[in-house]
Each structure stands twice: as C-alpha cells, then as structure tokens.
C-alpha cells in the first residue's frame, strides 16, 4: 500500500513540476518555445494518464472532506490532524470535568441522603451490594 501511495506522490510531484515549467514557458512565450511547450503539454497529458492508472491502487484511502477545505483555504493539510487532536483533547478535558462533577455530586448526595435517610440508604446500598 505504501508503495502505491509513494508512486502516486511521485507522479503528482512530477505533474506539479511540469505545470510549473509550462507556466514559465507560457508567461514569457516566444514562438521558438512552441515545440518545448508542445512536449511539456504531451508530458502533462501522459502524467494525468499515469495518475489515472494509479487510482485503482489507492481507492481504499479515505480522506476527510475537511482536509480538502484546508487545501482550498491554502492551509497545510497536516494541520487538520493537529487540529483534530487538539479538539479531541479539549473535548476530553471537558468530559473529564463533567465526570468529576458528577462524582462529587454523587458523593455529596450520598452523604446528605445518609444523614437524612440513614435506614433507607442502608437498604439501598445492601440491594446494590455497596456495603
């Protein structure tokens, strides 16, 4: 699997470099550059065909749509993973805080119930097997 991804990455890098070179040729076009431009365009078409051939080898790779949003916004897609981890950590802290609050509430409630209803609480604990 890794070699398929590496092949795709190599093809895409070559494609991007080819597009960059075409941009340079076109931005300062000279009639004598036509044959070089034609070669680069043929190479571009060939690169797309190579990428198309590789698509079946990487079809089981799932990319969250949000990653494409990051790319569209000009952000590094690796930041998506970092942001997800940070959000998960923040949510984890929030949930941990709620759990701690519920534990404190339960302890206080049991303390007050034991003061107010000691017999009933003893029966409750006996039924639960908490004694």
UniProtKB/TrEMBL annotation:
Is Disulfide bond set as a keyword in this record?
no
Q: Which domain of life is it from?
A: Eukaryota
In which compartments does the protein localize?
Nucleus
> What GO cellular component is one of the record's annotations?
mediator complex
**A Pfam family per the record:** Med10
Question: What's the name of the protein?
Answer: Mediator of RNA polymerase II transcription subunit 10
An MF annotation (GO) of this entry: transcription coregulator activity
Per UniProt, what is the name of the gene that codes for the protein in this document?
MED10
Protein family (similarity comment): Belongs to the Mediator complex subunit 10 family.
Database matches in InterPro entries: Mediator_Med10 (IPR019145)
Keyword terms of this UniProt record:
Activator, Nucleus, Transcription, Transcription regulation
Function description: Component of the Mediator complex, a coactivator involved in the regulated transcription of nearly all RNA polymerase II-dependent genes. Mediator functions as a bridge to convey information from gene-specific regulatory proteins to the basal RNA polymerase II transcription machinery. Mediator is recruited to promoters by direct interactions with regulatory proteins and serves as a scaffold for the assembly of a functional preinitiation complex with RNA polymerase II and the general transcription factors.
User: How does this polypeptide assemble, per the annotation?
Assistant: Component of the Mediator complex.
PANTHER family, per the entry: MEDIATOR OF RNA POLYMERASE II TRANSCRIPTION SUBUNIT 10
